[in-house]
Specification:
124 residues; alpha+beta; Lipocalin; eight-stranded antiparallel beta barrel; 3 helices; 8 strands; globular
């Protein structure tokens, strides 16, 4: 009887540990590492691609056109960017679930950036 209880307790503890440590590929939690990657969406008939790097830099293209490169920071659900063309920071809220990234304008005075960045991106 005692041996059965011990086996059941060990099985429950092991199941709990594995359940807590397992991370699904479509996990809705967002950390800097989950944003790293290549993200695409359509914008005015052209594919727009944003590459978010682990070293806090980003780059992008819109069709055949290279977009300004820059740096980013994350704080809570705010994605803050600053690029080579516009020295002012842009602030965007973001949500991430099932490899879909949604960027929403919070504040940005850089004309081209605040028009192009907001939208729904799919991880490539």
């Amino acid at each position: 009887m005692k041996k059965s209880i011990v086996i059941i307790l060990v099985a429950i503890i092991a199941a709990g540990i594995f359940a807590c440590s397992k991370k699904s590929s479509d996990d809705s939690s967002s950390t800097p590492s989950t944003l790293v990657g290549i993200w695409t969406r359509m914008y005015q008939g052209q594919t727009m691609t944003i590459v978010i790097n682990a070293d806090a830099t980003y780059s992008g293209t819109w069709g055949p056109i290279s977009l300004p490169t820059g740096i980013y920071t994350l704080s809570g659900n705010t994605f803050t960017v600053q690029d080579q063309e516009c020295s002012n920071q842009g602030h965007y809220s973001y949500t991430l679930a099932n490899n879909v990234l949604v960027l929403t304008l919070v504040s940005d005075i850089c004309d081209g950036r605040y028009q192009m960045v907001p939208g729904t991106y799919n991880k490539k």
